[in-house]
Structure formats: structure tokens, C-alpha cells
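SAMPLE LOG
Freezer: B-3
Tube label: C17
Construct: single chain, 278 aa
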Amino acid sequence: MGKTTAIDWTDHTFNPWWGCEKISPGCSRCYAATFAKRTGHDVWGPGADRRTFGDGHWNEPLKWERAARAAGRPALVFCASMADVFEDHPAVVDERARLWDLVARTPSLRWLLLTKRPENVRAMVPDEWLEAPEPPVASWWPSNVWIGTTVEDQEHALERIPVLLEIPAHVRFLSCEPLLGPVDLTEVDEEDVEDGIHWIIAGGESGAKYRALDVDHARALRDQADAYGIPFFYKQTGGLTPKAGGRLIDGRLRWAWPADAGDRSDVVAAAMAEEGIS
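STRUCTURE (predicted):
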């Protein structure tokens, strides 16, 4: 089952549309906005339109579903690298509904919905995902939909993590990339973090005007993840290009996923071979 993306923590990237609006410091050097502009698409900002796609594009995940089923391991789909699924923009209402239908048709895919707007999630997912089930069922939330939020610094950790914890997803994750400052998870309710966060991704920024990562901040986040028993994925140190600073932290490849991602020891072994680590 081949990858269709250069992002190491996922197998595929799917964009139901292109375009967004910058809302926090993590957005200011947005690679997606830069790429869209470079390719001639004016899709950033509240007044801009959004780029949508035809049936051929929407059929791609159905191929990934068949491949994942044949491989016997779930495939991870990052949705969306060129947008925010939970942006409140009139141009994407129908596309978002189409996405929920696609999610239902692809149970072998794990849809990783990463947002800077967790406060919009409940109003934008199908009502039945949030219905109160009868015990012992914990939630009607689809088991193949993971919800994550971007946490670039402490301010946004305190703002977004409590909202994320209220969403009844089976897997909730943090993307601390670009990590622009220290993040102390103990300032959020520790019991809630230990029980309610299932994955942490961390990494630095890349591009011509990248803001350098303080690796001590990544180390502290790694150590907190280890203390809480949360799988930790260190994507990159960052630099002029995505891989400029390397993928190792303190000489180690720290790649781990939630159990629902399936056995990925082969992926880790291949990366270690690339890094020359035995």
C-alpha cells in the first residue's frame, strides 16, 4: 500500500477543497497559502473563493479504501493540508457534506481531521455523530474519524485543548507544528490530558522565512508525552526545506502512532534504514 504524500505521519493527503483564512501565529508563514498563490489560486482570506474539485478527485479515497482492505491495515488520510475542514465559509458547506458521505463509505481509512477551529466541530459534523447512545456504547462518533487541533504555543494549548477534549472522538490528537514556543500540558487538567489525548505530533517550520525550532521545547513535549503514555511523533526540526534539520531528536527517530493506526513497524524500520540507524 503505497504512500501518496511526503508527510511521514500519514499515508495519504486528501483536500476536499483548497483555501482558508489565517487566524493565529501558526498560520503566518502558511505553506499552503504560499503554494496556492504560487500555483495561481487566489483562495486565501474571508473574501476569497475556495477551489473545489470534480468526481475524479473525490474517487481517489475509494481506491485507497480498497488497497487498505487488501493490505489488512488501516490507511491514514490527513484531511486537509490545503484547507481547514471546520472553517466557516459559505463556499464549502456542500463539500463538507460530501466529505461526511465519503468518510462513511471508507471504513478502512482513518480520517485525520486537523483544525485550528475545534470550537466549530460540533456544529459542522452530522448530528447523529453527537447523539447520546445507550450504554455500553460510548459514542456514535465514527471510529474511523480522528480529530486533532493545532497547538503552536501555550496560549493556543489552553484555548484549544479543552475544546478538543469535549469532542467524543475515539482518537484525539495534537499537532504541535510549527512548535513556536513551550507547551506545558500540566496547565490543562492532567487527568483529562492523560485520558483524552491519544497522539502528539511535533516539529519545526520550513520555508524561506521559517521560524527556528527551539529543540528544548520539542524535548519537553516529548518527555510529557512519555510521562502520560501518549504516542509521540517527531516530524522534523525544520529549516529552509522540510528535511533540512533532520527527522531525529537527540539522535533517535521518534515515530509512534495510536494503536488504531495498526502495526507500523515496517514504516519505522524503513525510516531507520534511511537514517542509517540500526
